[in-house]
């Protein structure tokens, strides 16, 4: 048991100091939840911003102020942002980064 506890501590310590983003992210161990479009639509402002990309729901609230495109991220706050997300303005790194904000799946 002591070895297991130590291993968890080491992993936590390692990941605490190897984070490449200054952004607060959802915990990666959260279980996937299901949200309706109505659920997501309630999160439509700068201080509470969720978006839908390809039927997945992302809480990007902590990224709004850091978004290189400024308030463009708010254009589809609480709504589907798939088209804008896959636009030519985004570098390929956003495709890896977005998963850090995943909170669940869209249900119909």
From TrEMBL:
A Pfam family annotated for this UniProt entry? Cyt-b5
- Cellular compartments per GO CC: membrane
Q: Which domain of life is it from?
A: Eukaryota
Alphabetical UniProt keywords: Heme, Iron, Metal-binding, Signal
The protein here is known as: Cytochrome b5 heme-binding domain-containing protein
- Kindly indicate whether the keyword RNA-binding belongs to this entry: no
Tell me which PROSITE patterns the record gives: CYTOCHROME_B5_1, CYTOCHROME_B5_2
Q: Does the keyword ATP-binding apply?
A: no
- Secretion signal: which residues? 1-18
What residues does the Cytochrome b5 heme-binding domain cover?
Answer: 32-107
**Which family does the record claim for this protein?**
Belongs to the cytochrome b5 family.
Annotated GO MF terms: heme binding; metal ion binding
Transmembrane residues, as ranges? none
Q: Which organism is it from?
A: Buddleja alternifolia
User: Matching InterPro entries, A to Z?
Assistant: Cyt_B5-like_heme/steroid-bd (IPR001199), Cyt_B5-like_heme/steroid_sf (IPR036400), Cyt_B5_heme-BS (IPR018506), Cytochrome_b5 (IPR050668)
